[in-house]
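Reopening this one. Same input as before:
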Amino acid sequence: MIPYGKQDINQADIDAVVDVLKSDFLTQGPQVPLFEETLKKYTGATHAVVVNSGTSALHIACLALGLGKGDWLWTTPITFVASANCGLYCGAQVDFVDIDPQTYNLSINALEEKLALAEKENRLPKIVVPVHLAGQACEMRAIKTLADRYGFSIIEDASHAIGGRYENDPIGNGRYSDITVFSFHPVKIVTTAEGGAALTNDSSIAEKLELFRCHGITRDEKLMDGAVSGEIPKEALGEALGEAQGEIQGKTQKEKYAPWFYQQIELGFNYRMTELQAALGVSQMTRIDDFVADRQCIKAKYNQALASLPLTLPYQMDDAYSACHLYIIRLNLNEISLSHRQVFEQLREQGIGVNLHYIPVYTQPYFQKLGYIDPHFPCADQYYAEAISLPIFYGMADEQFDTVVNALTTVLGPSMK
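Same output, byte for byte:
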């Protein structure tokens, strides 16, 4: 079976992980901050906070922006469920915006119309999560313009898109968003086995991301001082203060706290990335441009080889450079005698590991229970009825590529009307 996507691990990656295993640190050592510095340097973002998954990154991003009960988070229905679940984790309500029929990303027209209606109904979103499906950026400039008008924050779900560019800038630079999230799952462009990152240019947001990543605990004296706001009850802190309550008044922050002291100032989580994962990420990042360039070549070959088949090929925006995480075709069902499912199953039978990204989130049983019984997202519904993801990954051999094209031609050719 030729998979739709997979990691590429070389000897340098293996050596990097083995070096960590031989070191003194398996977690909370030098590799995590090195990986964060690598991401900052590559994207141009001011801050990067790495975590144990892209889902964790989405969760703490929502928390850092203050999402909570009574708030709304909007995202696209054509995404993995994590893009919506992150809002539910915070007690917020989730809604969806239909997709653009060309890019399959969140539709700017649909977003603008929905915002105008929501303003009248006093239910504007606190956060909008545009998803860069398949690695191609959303129209972020337009989304930012709407954010400024309607007052919502933006989390770019760039789980598919590290290595891509928008308006010639690296995705993740944060020019048009508050936070950008990456995923490092094995099928993504860069892998840390499992892992994710949240990038921002706002130092106060970065502080919150770091807190929520690690139990809500801080050793930063400035943050602890802000948390206690006034006199510190001696009985609450015990000997950690090292001074009697009466002696604390007028002393500097440094004099107040013993060197082992820390405080929990938020309800955080254990979302930390290990040194093993970070070392793998640092090593993988040395090849990121090669990973994306190879995928771009495969995409161009597909575009040429499949041009005569009854398909709609991926659309490429002029101002974006896709990371090509996925290669999604849409069947022109009115031109063939087979159904969507029949094409999918026949390709699988021939050893082609096709997939479908994604089932609209509002159709999932959990979201049906939340009330999405009869949603009106015609473009998303139509997409789901036609879309198939073909194999694309770094190092895909010519023989594998030819096998995919021949299988698709074999299945579709005889069925053409």
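So the earlier flakiness isn't reproducible anymore. For the record, The chain is about 40% helix and 10% strand.
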